[in-house]
Design a protein that fits this description.
The protein has 10 helices and no strands. By secondary structure, it is mostly helical.
Length: about 260
C-alpha cells in the first residue's frame, strides 16, 4: 500500500513538473511570436528577429564571452546573498518574536525600506568608489531589506496556539524558533528571496554600467554603443536566462524544503 502511495505521489510530481514545463514553453512561444511580429512590423536594425538574436546568443556562448560576463554578475549576486541573507533572517525572526527588538527595528524599516535602493547608488559610490564593492553593497541592501521585512512579518503571524502547544511539551525558546517559527516562515522567506533577487538582477544592470567591464550590464551598453544590436539582445537573453535559472532554483528549494505545504 505504501509503495502504491509513493508511486502515485511520484507520478503526481512528474505530472506537475510536466505541466509547469508546458506552461513555460507556451509563455516562451507567445513572447517569441510577439517579438517576431514586432520585428517584422517595425523593420528596423535596432530590433532584429528572434532567430538572429538567439543565433548570436549561441555564438557568444560558444566563444565564452557571455559566460565570462554572466559568471561575474552571478558571483556578485551570490556573494551579496551569502553576506546579507543570514543576518536578515536572524534579525527579522528575532524582531518578529520580540516586541522590544521590534520597537527598535521597526522605525528603521518604515523609514528606509520604502526608499528605492537605486537612489543610494550615488552615495554608495561616493563613499566606496566606483569599483565592485559599491555594487555589491547596493545588491546586498536590496536582498537584506526584502528578507528582513518578510522574516519579521512572517514571524509575527505565527499562530500563538502552535507555539504554546510546543512549549507545553518542554520546548525552549531556541527550540520554538527552530521547529516552529522558522519552518512557518520559510515559504515567506523564499518568496521574499524571489522578489529580492529579481529586483537585484534588475538593479544589477544599472549598477554594472558604471566603471565595470566584465559583467553583463556593461556588455549590453557596450554593444549598444557599438551599434551591434544582435550582441545587445544576446546579452539581454543571457540576463533573462540567468533570472529564470535563479527562480527555478528557488522553486526547487521550496519544493524540497516545504513538502509539508498543501498545494492545489
Amino acid at each position: 500500500m505504501s509503495e502504491r502511495r509513493k508511486g502515485s505521489r511520484a507520478s503526481l510530481r512528474r505530472a506537475i513538473a510536466a505541466s509547469r514545463v508546458l506552461r513555460g514553453l507556451a509563455a516562451l512561444a507567445v513572447v517569441l511570436a510577439a517579438w517576431a511580429l514586432a520585428a517584422l512590423l517595425i523593420a528596423k536594425p535596432f530590433l532584429p528577429a528572434p532567430g538572429v538574436a538567439f543565433a548570436r546568443f549561441l555564438e557568444r556562448l560558444g566563444d565564452g564571452v557571455l559566460l565570462a560576463h554572466l559568471g561575474a554578475s552571478a558571483r556578485r549576486i551570490g556573494l551579496s546573498l551569502l553576506v546579507t541573507a543570514f543576518p536578515a533572517v536572524a534579525l527579522g525572526l528575532a524582531a518578529g518574536r520580540s516586541r522590544k527588538l521590534d520597537a527598535f527595528v521597526s522605525p528603521f524599516v518604515y523609514l528606509l525600506h520604502p526608499l528605492p535602493k537605486v537612489a543610494f547608488l550615488p552615495v554608495i559610490m561616493l563613499l566606496f568608489g566606483l569599483g565592485d564593492l559599491a555594487k555589491d553593497i547596493l545588491i546586498g541592501l536590496i536582498i537584506f531589506g526584502q528578507i528582513l521585512v518578510a522574516a519579521r512579518d512572517a514571524a509575527r503571524a505565527v499562530e500563538p496556539g502552535l507555539i504554546d502547544s510546543v512549549r507545553s511539551l518542554g520546548a525552549g525558546r531556541l527550540d520554538v524558533i527552530r521547529h516552529v517559527v522558522f519552518p512557518s516562515c520559510l515559504p515567506a522567506l523564499l518568496t521574499a528571496l524571489r522578489v529580492g533577487l529579481g529586483t537585484a538582477i534588475a538593479i544589477l544592470f544599472l549598477a554594472e554600467t558604471f566603471a565595470t567591464e566584465t559583467v553583463l550590464g556593461h556588455f549590453v551598453m557596450d554593444a549598444w554603443a557599438r551599434v551591434d544590436y544582435p550582441d545587445m539582445y544576446a546579452a539581454i537573453i543571457a540576463l533573462s536566462a540567468f533570472g529564470l535559472a535563479v527562480y527555478a532554483a528557488i522553486d526547487l528549494a521550496e519544493a524540497r524544503l516545504c513538502r509539508w505545504r498543501k498545494r492545489d
